[in-house]
Write a structure and sequence with these properties.
Elements: H1 2-6, H2 11-16, H3 45-49, E1 54-58, E2 64-68, E3 78-79, H4 95-142, H5 148-162, H6 170-217, H7 221-251, H8 253-262, H9 265-341
Antiparallel strand pairs: 1-2, 1-3
Keywords: Coiled coil, Membrane, Transmembrane, Transmembrane helix
Transmembrane segments: 318-341
Coiled coil: 95-126
């Protein structure tokens, strides 16, 4: 680089690597080039100064580039592409065909737009119908057992009105409807059974509690004995009910869990509370039976003590009577003996 500068080479020549010794014979005249004395040319000089042998080139970035005296582009440069004249405008005879093609394209575009609009409306109607049916299904799943029949009628009305508009969702929606109706009927039957068991348990618990209360307050032994017999029967019934309810909850546990998971909102709460209440009453029946058994056992023990006491009194009375008879006999014999002596 320093050697080039000492030779008087301009900066553009150092960057492009163009020196006088590299220029071909027949370059631009020295009079046309301010740098001719140094034997250098810069790119585009010949075209700018009208030098002979100028030829058009482009650099790697596509910018015009001229080098004098070269028949081909130097390494790293490409010759500019030839000029291509634009295509002539269509003749007047082709104007009608162009207009016809344009009208046909516009017609097809309008048809596609109408088809897209119809598809959009159909999808909107399908979505609306599906949403209406699913809302009715959700209401049925959340409905309490006392209100299931009216909700099923509402669902039937919505299905008959909207099912035809569900389109591709018709089959899955129909399956959802059938499943919801089936589960609602099963839940209704289950609630009837549970409520029946709960009602029977409540009545029996009240009756047994009243028998226990009376058994603790009766003073007459005869009445108390009769009452304990009734309490014994109530205790046995309580044991039987508790066992039956425990068997019912164990045997139907899976079915109840399925129904609870299929219900929503107040319906699920109602079912859970009823199952919990039945389970609580089963425990109360067992506890009531235990309390009644203790009271009955105590009554029997008291009755046994009374019987033992009565037997002791009877035995004492008998011995007293025997002794009295013996004493009378002895006195009679003594009187007879005295009479004989006189």
């Amino acid at each position: 680089m320093q050697a080039m500068m000492q030779q008087g080479m301009p900066p553009w020549a150092m960057m492009q690597g163009t020196m006088g010794g590299m220029m071909p014979q027949g370059g631009a005249p020295a009079g046309d080039n301010p740098y001719a004395a140094a034997g250098h040319y810069y790119p585009g000089y010949a075209a700018a100064y009208g030098g002979a042998g100028a030829q058009q080139y482009v650099d790697p970035y596509g910018r015009p580039y001229q080098m004098p005296g070269y028949g081909s582009a130097p390494a790293g440069y490409a010759q500019a592409p030839a000029y291509v004249a634009p295509a002539p405008a269509p003749a007047a005879a082709d104007a009608s065909r162009v207009e016809e093609a344009r009208q046909q394209a516009m017609k097809q575009l309008e048809e596609r737009r109408q088809q897209a609009e119809e598809v959009k409306k159909k999808l909107a109607a399908e979505h609306s119908a599906t949403a209406a049916i699913r809302i009715a299904i959700s209401n049925l799943q959340m409905g309490q057992s006392d209100n299931l029949e009216p909700l099923r009628k509402i669902l039937d009305t919505v299905v008959s009105k909207e099912m035809a508009n569900t389109g591709s969702q018709e089959k899955p929606i129909k399956n959802e409807v059938d499943k919801a109706v089936k589960e609602s009927k099963e839940r209704e039957d289950m609630m009837k059974e549970l409520r029946g068991l709960v009602k029977i348990s409540e009545d029996h618990l009240k009756m047994t509690a009243e028998l226990i209360r009376k058994a603790m307050t009766l003073q007459d032994e005869k009445d108390r004995e009769d009452h304990l017999k009734q309490l014994e029967k109530a205790r046995l019934d309580a044991d039987t009910m508790a066992d039956a309810q425990r068997y019912f909850t164990d045997d139907r546990a899976k079915e109840m869990d399925t129904l609870i998971s299929a219900t929503k909102g107040p319906a699920a709460v109602e079912l859970r509370l009823t199952v919990a209440k039945l389970s609580k009453q089963t425990t109360e029946l067992k506890q009531m039976s235990t309390n009644a058994a203790g009271l009955i056992q105590e009554g029997k023990a008291r009755q046994q003590r009374r019987e033992d006491s009565s037997l002791s009194v009877f035995q004492i009375t008998v011995w007293y009577d025997v002794l009295l008879v013996l004493l009378l006999v002895l006195l009679l014999l003594l009187w007879l003996f005295c009479c004989c002596l006189l």
